[in-house]
Amino acid sequence: MKHLIFYVLLILPIINGFAQEDTNPLAETPKNDSIAVVDHQYKEDQFYLAITYNLLGQKPDGVSQNGFSSGFHLGFIKDMPINTQRNIAIGLGLGLSSNSYNQTLLITEENGDYIYTDIDDDTSFSKNKFTTYLLEMPIEFRWRTSTPKDYDFWRIYTGFKIGYVFHNSSKFNGSPNDIKLSNIDDFNAFQYGLTFSAGYSNVNFHFYYALNTIFDTNAKVSGTGEAVDMNAIKIGLIFYIL
């Protein structure tokens, strides 16, 4: 989590610069405060914050998830309406994401090689998880029922998200020893997938389905040689903020 906080502080000036670019010079403060200015060049949903429950698809035989696997996502999306009603738009963004996956695939290192072992029932442990930290670029096609005066509206946003894994880690707490690894080479540096968000007002359902695997072709289960072809599936809530 400390890595995510560092990169949040790094990305905030960039996000602030984007937000200042979207300030509408035509929306001036009226001389008479009782008269509201209607901004016909409005944009929507420029900041987002999401909390997800992370699932693993295509798990190797014998591997299961245990505990709660969470994801935290935040960023800025430049909203670009493409029709005169401004209820259809393209969104292009930049954000950060932290994702943990609690499961039963133990990752160890021996002579520079990574070994993946399914934890058997005889092994006592309290935690086994890997975590990824990503710099992400969401691209969305956006439909909504918004108007210049209505800030509570229905929305459906579909799109694509590509992420760069700038840090990863693995942690095992159990018998006989605790194991901590970081920057494991077998993680795919780039991860990408489809996104879908829908709902009303600020709180919306959010879904992400990865189109590629979390690990590359070097990751194979010890003993069986089965490829670790797990992909990420994220389900949760996303909060949009102007």
Q: What's the arrangement of secondary structure elements?
A:
Layout: H1 2-21, E1 47-57, E2 70-81, E3 88-102, E4 105-110, E5 113-118, E6 125-144, E7 154-174, E8 179-182, E9 190-200, E10 203-210, E11 231-241
Antiparallel strand pairs: 1-2, 1-11, 2-3, 3-6, 4-5, 6-7, 7-8, 7-9, 9-10, 10-11
Summarize the structure.
With 242 residues, the protein is mainly β. It contains 1 helix and 11 strands; from the N terminus they run H-E-E-E-E-E-E-E-E-E-E-E.
What does this protein look like?
- There is one protein chain.
- This protein has 242 residues and is mostly beta strands.
- The protein is 8% helix and 52% strand.
- The strands form 2 sheets. The protein has an 8-stranded antiparallel barrel with strand order 1-2-3-6-7-9-10-11.
- Strand 2 and strand 3 form a beta hairpin.
- The longest helix is centred in the N-terminal third of the chain and has 20 residues.
- About 4% of the residues have low confidence.
